[in-house]
Amino acid sequence: MKKTTSFSIISLTGSFLLMLLLITASVRFGYQQTSFTQIYHTLTQFDGSTAHLVIQSVRIPRALIAAVVGAALAVAGVLMQTLTKNPLASPSIFGVNAGAGLAVVIGVTIFQINSLQAFAVLAFFGAAVAIITVFGLGSLDRKGLSPLQLTLAGAAMSALFGSLTQGLLVLNESALEQVLFWLAGSVQGRDIALLWTSLPYIAGGFILSLLLAPSFNVLAMGDDVASGLGIKTGMLKLWIGVIVVLLAGGSVAIAGPIGFIGIMIPHLARKWIGIDHRWLLPMSAFLGANLLLAADILARYVIMPQEIPVGVMTAIIGTPIFIYIARKVGTAS
């Protein structure tokens, strides 16, 4: 069914309002009891009390980080699936998570780095190196960048980076203790400074993706069609790689590797709003933010007073959906 413009606008508005509601709920609910009145007073009449400090320094940064990271991973997933023509593609298919994890583990084991700010820089660098390597390997074919070559190169580099990471952690158990929580993916305890550091890159990725949305629509019809319509497919694919570095790399730098959002959300967004990237990209951003916010809220209550990393919660939510998508794809083929 073709989605009308009015339907798309209503859907985006509803998703945006739901995101605001979930951000408010994320600030409100948790082990430390707070109220909506305290949230309001924190923003208008901050008095330095424990509740106000928790809201200002922990809850609000956590909610904002979850929203930004979820949105970025979802949009990166859309672009990955458009580029590779693979409905199961996600940022991790380019080795983003594995490259970031390896860079962090190298920093801990070899250079004894142990701060989250340093982790963020290393993770962004590792993600960028991973994507550059994958694009380089994917370009070795005489036909240039092809979905199959990119997918195979990404899978190979993910396996290589993952193996190197495991090997370094086996050799240095103290490093395992330092990076294990980060490797699981979490928005808990992340300093708001991490968000401000990565936000320009993530915002740049969002803006570029929206500007190139019409070209993505053409590319989704196939390389031959896109070339016939005057699209420089090689350059466009390189731009997608840059955008994925900005979005996924920036997200991993903040929260560590969080999986499944980049796989699930593009399918849900297409089902709801259609395949036009001009609507699909912002819808995916809002749905990704909503999913990660909801998962983070649930993660606080599963084993309260302790919390589980939100990356574990998204895996719990995403695994059955991933199986459904995989079975659907297998049946269709």
UniProtKB/TrEMBL annotation:
<feature type="transmembrane region" description="Helical">
    <location>
        <begin position="118"/>
        <end position="138"/>
    </location>
</feature>
<dbReference type="GO" id="GO:0005886">
    <property type="term" value="C:plasma membrane"/>
</dbReference>
<dbReference type="Pfam" id="PF01032">
    <property type="entry name" value="FecCD"/>
</dbReference>
<feature type="transmembrane region" description="Helical">
    <location>
        <begin position="6"/>
        <end position="31"/>
    </location>
</feature>
<dbReference type="InterPro" id="IPR000522">
    <property type="entry name" value="ABC_transptr_permease_BtuC"/>
</dbReference>
<keyword id="KW-1133">Transmembrane helix</keyword>
<keyword id="KW-1003">Cell membrane</keyword>
<protein>
    <submittedName>
        <fullName>Siderophore ABC transporter permease</fullName>
    </submittedName>
</protein>
<keyword id="KW-0472">Membrane</keyword>
<dbReference type="GO" id="GO:0033214">
    <property type="term" value="P:siderophore-iron import into cell"/>
</dbReference>
<feature type="transmembrane region" description="Helical">
    <location>
        <begin position="308"/>
        <end position="326"/>
    </location>
</feature>
<comment type="similarity">
    <text>Belongs to the binding-protein-dependent transport system permease family. FecCD subfamily.</text>
</comment>
<feature type="transmembrane region" description="Helical">
    <location>
        <begin position="279"/>
        <end position="302"/>
    </location>
</feature>
<feature type="transmembrane region" description="Helical">
    <location>
        <begin position="63"/>
        <end position="83"/>
    </location>
</feature>
<feature type="transmembrane region" description="Helical">
    <location>
        <begin position="236"/>
        <end position="267"/>
    </location>
</feature>
<keyword id="KW-0813">Transport</keyword>
<dbReference type="InterPro" id="IPR037294">
    <property type="entry name" value="ABC_BtuC-like"/>
</dbReference>
<feature type="transmembrane region" description="Helical">
    <location>
        <begin position="150"/>
        <end position="171"/>
    </location>
</feature>
<dbReference type="GO" id="GO:0022857">
    <property type="term" value="F:transmembrane transporter activity"/>
</dbReference>
<keyword id="KW-0812">Transmembrane</keyword>
<feature type="transmembrane region" description="Helical">
    <location>
        <begin position="192"/>
        <end position="216"/>
    </location>
</feature>
<feature type="transmembrane region" description="Helical">
    <location>
        <begin position="89"/>
        <end position="111"/>
    </location>
</feature>
